[in-house]
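Appendix C reproduces, verbatim, an entry submitted by the partner laboratory led by Prof. M.T., so that reviewers can inspect both the input and the predicted structure.
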Amino acid sequence: MSPTWAVTLFYGSLASDLFVSESRFVIRTASKPASAMGGLGALMQLFGMSRSQDDSFAVRDYLTSRDAITELGKRLDLRAIFNRDSADPLTRYPSIFYGPTREDFYRYFQHRLSVYVDHTSGLTVLTTNAFDGESAEQINRALLQLGEDLVNRLNERVLGDAARVADDEVARAEARLIQSELAVTDFRNRELMLDPSKSAAMLIELIGRLGAELGVLRAEIAETEGNARHSPQLQSMRDRAIALEHQIQIERGRAASSSDGLADKIAAYETLMLEQQFATRALDQARSALEAARTEARRQQLFLERVVDPVVADKPMAPRRIATILMTLGFNVIGVGILWLLASGLREHASGRIS
């Protein structure tokens, strides 16, 4: 039997019909400047759809990978879909060409699936075929969902990577601020004062009042000594002046730079407050950096936008029986012609040698 008759017999009576389901989608991200785009890219930007072709190839490679087919097998009974008794022995699975192993099914499924990225429009065309329209549509829709799940995982990874370092900085800044606030609280509890600067201002005010009172008292003593040197009040006034001088010296000693003086306490307190201010500023900067990182991550997020949803085909689109038969016939004619030319050349060569 010639190859043409064999192909005619197979495709004319044995080959199973294949129903095709097709969908189209685009992977888009944050809009880019319109000057960097042209044609369909600029039109897509008007609708907030700036295509990301590199990510389209990533989705394409995933949909044709073993991982995707394994995940698809968890959602659909693929082996039951392609193991139909009504299907011809060459097209169904398993067959004489493909065994029952997972690797064989992976190679078999590549003939039931096609993923093509249009370089001009940026659209990805997903085509699936099966022995009935419902199965082809179910497989196509499940693969679309797998593509969306992949895009979501990529987005989560981008957001996590971008925010992880900023989150660590925020945590360190918060710990630093808490530590500085605890140090301020410990200082106040230990020294029994809220603000040494305010205490110093009150002390200076007290010294000023005592000095003014001492000045008035000295004037009175001088006046009394001039007018009534033997006045009985003169001694009490002098004792009071001595007491005021002593009190002023005590208050000045409190403000002096000694181990327990206010000067050292003010310096220590101001150091703690300065550290608290730095910690607060660092926390504000870390939070701003975190928000900026999240905003940038959201700007880089991907979206799988369905342009054409899969539908249930109402008639088979494959195999192309007449085209295949005619192509086989053409190859046979060409092959016979080549063999005839070779045979003629050999005969002429043999005739020339004999003569």
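The chain has three domains: 1-16+319-341, 17-162+300-317, 173-297. Additional entries are available on request from the coordinating office.
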